[in-house]
Write a structure and sequence with these properties.
The chain is an alpha/beta fold. It has 4 domains: 31-55 and 64-124 and 140-193 and 333-340 and 392-453, 3-Layer(aba) Sandwich (Rossmann fold); 195-326 and 471-507, 3-Layer(aba) Sandwich (Rossmann fold), CATH 3.40.50; 524-574, no CATH class; 585-847, Rhodopsin 7-helix transmembrane proteins (Rhopdopsin 7-helix transmembrane proteins, Up-down Bundle), CATH 1.20.1070. The chain is 41% helix and 15% strand. The strands form 9 sheets. An 8-stranded mixed sheet has the order 12-11-13-14-15-18-19-20, sandwiched between helices. β16 (443-445) and β17 form a beta hairpin. It starts with 10 loop residues before the first strand and ends in a 6-residue tail after the last helix.
């Protein structure tokens, strides 16, 4: 992947005419910006410049060296931290006694190509070499470990280029999770946690505050792209949607950055997750200030969230209230004073130190090519205590500490390899692979008591502080720790926040709201909006019989058949059981009618019994009349079995009692009708028919007809009897307690048999209606059977179409109506004569011989 580098420091073997092998260097040598000889050399790669001048190579001439621009004080701070650690180790009698550490520190300018050139220089040397063929061209690595770089992309390129040499690369600020892949980057280690944890922590932080609709901006490099990819994956798992996710690099043209601003302006989300380096954030912050884009809640990665240089630039308060993850605060005694002493940086007498000094103190040396008359002249004795800029800012002390720990990790590995006690074994041949293996397994504590070690992926333990930007009166935000994140704890305890101490954007007192759709309340369910992410949805009310009792429910749960959803549809309530009860008006009226019919029947029976010896009672077959009255009493009373909560016994009793009592009743009426016909036949000359239908035959007829119905009922109860049944389908919001028929054939057989007897009785009575007696009972039986048949013919469609308890009421009404019809038509005329017209209650009148005028 690095074939495109036109400049390299690889050695090539060429054959001379004398057939001698000569090793020569291609390209210009790389010159370190800082160096110091020592017994063991360490390398450093930092970005003393943050950019470079673009050039157009014609491929006709040798390309010129990279021209770096934009002095970056952060790179100098990292270099100072490395020098501090080396000086401290060299002055120590406990670590590497008698061994001096030297260093070679290079400027990468933030360029991947430059970083790779420097890394290869560390691996192969830098000076011109010419040797005879007997000596090998290859030589040992020039340094035993490399500290740097600060960004992920250069580290990936360096680790790929010199990975086969196994020279340890220890980065203090490269966080891309991809660098944990030891198959690709076997020699890479770092003292800063991987973004594998940071990205997930950011997603959990966003979820904690209920933000489900957010935007994302990332640096268009391995750090930003890989970190945002992990964040997006975790966010989807947590139900967070990204309205937009845009990337840019600081060298992008203005129109691309303008498009990003337009996207944010058109968005509805109020939270922006920024996975950015501090250099790229400076660019986007400038554009936000120019367009006055405020009021967004920023969530930041460690790349910028605790960078005071960014806070100083934010004069429009765009980042006020920002919250994000930072490396835990650190203190290294003596480091601050050492770093503020710029004299150790003046070790190379090159142009870079002059530029650094002039930029640091805002002055110009006399001999400087860019000096002007209006500039203050540098004396070389300027006091740094009076200067306030990014170099004097120690807010990145946690990162400086990471550089410090990286140097100490290499020193402890060397200490172990050289078997150092009071002295070190200098005869041990050092090789990078051995040093790499010992650094991976090293475990020690710094002088401040901080434990340092690497896991199997070359990463440290993942712990973060949660930082909140609180605006201050001097317009520079204060970084306040409002929580902690520890990836080593159980999932539900990793995030620990103090919500009450957080300041939000625009000094809001409550957590800003950033959602695509309002939460769906209990009683509703979410329905996704077509063509939009899962966080955008409509809330649809649950259907009848369904409920949801949680917020943002995706489905409505159907209630159990015995339950029904309440009005709010957020709970299932037990359905009201519906049956014809005695306490309701309809049940009470039917009960009263039944009891009234029973009483009337009892009164009629008493009258007949009282006047049982009178001609009108004796002429109408008093035995059948009393049996008919008894059966009518049972008919009235059996209607009561249909009222009340159905039970197993009541269901069997109501239908069988109804069937048997009505057959008994119709059998009596049929017997009376036959008696009338037989009596008429008996009056004809020579007729002897009455001896064949006397009282005994009448009793047997009634008994026979009734026994047939009893047999039908027994078969019905034996095969498939009626049983109590909960009807859930008839009425949605109520349970109808009813008696299932069991066998429909049995039920309709009972009714059919009753109907058959009633029709037979009607026909016979109709034939006898005009017989010559003054009180011919047949005509009254005809009317009663006509009423009976009419009632039961209308009952069938009414019964089938009536819902719930009304079907039971229809059946009771049919029973009572037909019973009253029989009672009134057959017995009321007789009672009228007995009580009100006693003069007609004579044998002569009944025989039609003594009619009154």
């Amino acid at each position: 992947m690095f074939l495109f580098f036109s400049e390299n420091v690889l050695f090539y073997v060429i054959h001379t005419e004398a057939e001698e092998t000569v090793c020569t260097q291609r390209g210009d040598p790389e010159i370190p910006q800082m160096f110091k000889d020592g017994d063991i050399m360490l390398g450093g790669i930092f970005s003393f410049h943050s950019s470079w001048k673009n050039r157009r190579d014609t491929y006709m001439d040798k390309p010129l060296p990279l021209q770096c621009t934009s002095l970056n004080f952060r790179g100098f701070q990292f270099a100072q931290a490395m020098l501090f650690a080396i000086e401290e180790i060299n002055n120590s009698t406990d670590l590497l006694p008698g061994i001096s550490l030297g260093y070679r520190i290079y400027d990468s300018c933030g360029s991947i190509a430059k970083s790779v050139r420097v890394a290869l220089a560390f691996a192969n040397g830098n000076e011109d070499v010419s040797q005879l063929s007997e000596a090998p061209c290859t030589r040992p690595a020039q340094v035993q470990a490399i500290l740097g770089e600060s960004s992920s992309s250069p580290c990936m390129a360096m680790a790929t280029a010199i990975g086969p040499f196994y020279i340890p690369i220890i980065s203090h600020f490269a966080t891309c999770a991809c660098l944990s892949d030891k198959t690709k980057y076997p020699s890479f280690l770092r003292t800063i946690p991987s973004d594998y944890y940071q990205s997930r922590a950011l997603a959990q932080l966003v979820k904690h505050f209920g933000w489900t609709w957010v935007g994302a901006i990332r640096t268009n490099d391995d750090y930003g792209n890989n970190g945002m990819a992990t964040f997006t994956e975790t966010a989807e798992q947590l139900g967070i949607c990204l309205e937009y996710s845009v990337s840019f690099f600081r060298t992008d043209p203005p129109d691309k950055i303008q498009k990003i601003v337009d996207i944010i302006k058109a968005s509805t989300s109020k939270v922006i997750v920024g996975f950015l380096s501090h250099i790229d954030l400076e660019v986007i912050l400038h554009e936000f200030s120019r367009h006055n884009l405020t009021g967004y809640q920023w969530v930041g990665s460690e790349g910028w969230i605790f960078d005071s240089q960014i806070a100083a630039m934010d004069r429009h308060h765009i980042l006020d209230g920002a919250i994000g993850l930072s490396i835990p605060k650190a203190h290294v005694s003596g480091m601050r004073d050492f770093m503020l002493d710029v004299r150790p940086l003046n070790v190379s007498s090159n142009e870079m130190f002059t530029n650094f000094y002039e930029s640091l103190f805002s002055c110009k040396f006399k001999q400087s090519k860019t000096s002007s008359r209006n500039q203050i002249e540098c004396t070389g004795n300027e006091d740094l205590s009076e200067v306030e800029n990014s170099f004097t800012d120690m807010s990145l002390m946690p990162i400086f500490n990471n550089v410090y720990k990286g140097v100490y990790a290499a020193a402890h590995a060397l200490h172990f390899i050289l078997s150092c006690n009071k002295t070190c074994n200098t005869k041990v041949q050092l090789d990078p692979f051995t040093i790499l293996q010992h650094i991976k397994t090293i475990q020690f504590k710094t002088k401040e008591g901080e434990e340092v070690y690497f896991n199997e992926n070359g990463d440290p333990a993942a712990k973060y502080e949660i930082i909140n930007w609180k605006p201050r009166e001097n317009d520079i935000a204060e970084f306040v720790t409002v929580g902690l994140y520890d990836a080593s704890l159980p999932a539900n305890k990793q995030l620990n926040l103090q919500n009450e101490s957080i300041t939000w954007t625009q000094n809001l007192q409550q957590v800003p709201l950033s959602i695509c759709s309002e939460k769906c309340l209990p009683g509703t369910r979410k329905v996704l909006q077509k063509g939009k992410p899962v966080c955008c949805y409509d809330c649809i009310r649950c259907a009848e019989g369904e409920m949801s009792n949680s917020t943002d429910s995706v489905t409505c749960v159907r209630c159990h058949p015995e339950f029904w959803s309440n009005e709010r549809r957020d709970a299932c309530v037990k359905k009201e059981a519906e049956f014809l009860s005695y306490v309701e008006i309809m049940g009470a009226l039917l009960t009263a009618a039944s009891l009234f019919g029973t009483c009337i029947t009892a009164v009629v029976a008493f009258i007949f019994f009282r006047y049982r010896k009178t001609p009108i009672v004796r002429a109408n077959n008093s035995e059948l009349s009393f049996l008919l009255l008894f059966s009518l009493t049972l008919c009235f009373l059996c209607s009561l079995t249909f009222i009340g909560r159905p039970s197993e016994w009541s269901c069997m009793l109501r239908h069988t009692a109804f069937g048997i009592t009505f057959v008994l009743c119709i059998s009596c009426v049929l017997g009376k009708t036959i008696v009338v016909l037989m009596a008429f036949r008996a009056t004809l000359p020579g007729s002897n028919v009455m001896k064949w239908f006397g009282p005994a035959q009448q009793r047997l007829t009634v008994l026979g007809f009734t026994l047939i119905q009893v047999m039908i009922c027994i078969l019905w109860l034996s095969i498939s009897p009626p049983f109590p049944f909960k009807n859930f389908t008839e009425l949605k919001h109520k349970i109808i307690l009813e008696c299932a028929l069991g066998s429909a054939v049995g039920f309709w057989s009972v009714l059919g048999y009753i109907g058959l007897l009633a029709i037979l009785c009607f026909i016979l009575a109709f034939l006898a209606r005009k017989l010559p007696d003054n009180f011919n009972e047949a005509k009254f039986i005809t009317f009663s059977m006509l009423i009976f048949c009419a009632v039961w013919l209308t009952f069938i469609p009414a019964y089938v179409s009536s819902p719930g308890k009304f079907s039971v009421a229809v059946e009771i009404f049919a029973i009572l109506s037909s019973s009253f019809g029989l009672l009134i038509c057959i017995f009321l005329p007789k009672c009228y004569i007995i009580l009100l017209k006693p003069e007609k209650n004579t044998k002569k009148y009944i025989m039609g011989k003594g009619a009154l005028k």
